[in-house]
Write a structure and sequence with these properties.
7 helices; two-stranded antiparallel ribbon; alpha+beta; 253 residues; two-stranded antiparallel sheet
C-alpha cells in the first residue's frame, strides 16, 4: 500500500512519466513505521516538494510579495489539505450518516474500495455542466458521491473522542486496555483537542500563515488521500523551522 501511495499519489518512480504527484513534484521523502499502543502499525512520512523554499527564504518572500502572491500560496495550501468536512458541518454530516445507515443497502465505506472518476466531458467545461449530457451527469454524480463518501470516512476515522474506553458516567469500561487521552493528573486531552477554530486562512504582518480550520475535533487532511486509502490520515504543511526540526527528530528517533 505504501509503494502504491508513493508511485500513484506522489508520482515517485511511476511508470506514468506524465504523473507529477498530487502535491507537486516530489524531490525527496522519508518514512518510518510506528507501532501504536494497541499494536496497529501506521506510517509517518516527510515529503520535500521540488522548488520549495526553506522556511527563512519563504518568510522573506511572504513579507516582500504582494497580496496576489499571498493568495496564490494560500490557495495551493488549501488544495493540499483542509481542516473541515466537505459537504457540511460535523453535525450535518453526522445526521446524514445516520440516514444512510438506515438504508438496507448501506455499506460501510471503510470496507470498500475507492471508485475512479468517469472520463471528463470534452465537449463542456467544468463551469458549464450540461444536464442532458451523459458524461457531464456521470461526473457530477461521481463528484457528489466523492464528497459524501469522503465525509463519511472522516466521520468514522478522523474524529477524535476523549471518551473512548469510558462509560457515560465517566468510569472506565471493563476489560479494556485503552489508555485514554484524559488519563493524566491534569485531566486534559493529551492530544490537545479540540483544536483552535480559524474561520479564514490568512497571513499576518510577521509572515505567519494561519490555515482555515472550522472543525475542532479533526486534524487537517487531504480529501483525495482519505478517499483513496479509506482510513485515518493526517496531513500538514511544515512551515516553521522549529516544527520541522521537531518532526524530523520524532521520525528519526
Amino acid at each position: 500500500m505504501v509503494q502504491t501511495f508513493l508511485s500513484d499519489v506522489l508520482g515517485i518512480d511511476s511508470n506514468d512519466h506524465d504523473l507529477e504527484g498530487f502535491y507537486g513534484p516530489t524531490s525527496g521523502y522519508y518514512g518510518t513505521v510506528e507501532q501504536q499502543g494497541r499494536l496497529t502499525l501506521h506510517m509517518h512520512m516527510l515529503l520535500w516538494i521540488a522548488g520549495n523554499l526553506n522556511p527563512e527564504d519563504l518568510r522573506a518572500k511572504i513579507l516582500s510579495e504582494s497580496s496576489v502572491w499571498h493568495q496564490s500560496l494560500i490557495s495551493w495550501l488549501e488544495r493540499c489539505h483542509r481542516g473541515n468536512f466537505i459537504s457540511g458541518t460535523h453535525e450535518q454530516v453526522s445526521a446524514r450518516s445516520e440516514q444512510l445507515k438506515a438504508d438496507a443497502n448501506y455499506i460501510d465505506p471503510t470496507q470498500t474500495l475507492s471508485v475512479p472518476p468517469p472520463p471528463l466531458c470534452k465537449a463542456h467545461s467544468d463551469e458549464e455542466v450540461v444536464n442532458d449530457c451523459k458524461q457531464c451527469n456521470a461526473f457530477s454524480r461521481w463528484n457528489n458521491d466523492y464528497d459524501t463518501v469522503t465525509d463519511e470516512l472522516l466521520l468514522r476515522s478522523n474524529v477524535h473522542s476523549c471518551n473512548k474506553g469510558t462509560k457515560k458516567d465517566g468510569n472506565r469500561k471493563k476489560n479494556t486496555t485503552y489508555s485514554g487521552c484524559m488519563d493524566n493528573k491534569w485531566g486534559t486531552c493529551k492530544a490537545c483537542f479540540p483544536r483552535q477554530i480559524v474561520p479564514k486562512s490568512e497571513i499576518d504582518e510577521t509572515g505567519y500563515v494561519t490555515m482555515r480550520k472550522t472543525e475542532g475535533w479533526i486534524n487537517t487532511f487531504t480529501p483525495a488521500v482519505t478517499y483513496i486509502l479509506r482510513c485515518n490520515t493526517d496531513i500538514t504543511s511544515l512551515a516553521l523551522g522549529t516544527t520541522i526540526k521537531g518532526v524530523i527528530m520524532y521520525i528519526y528517533i
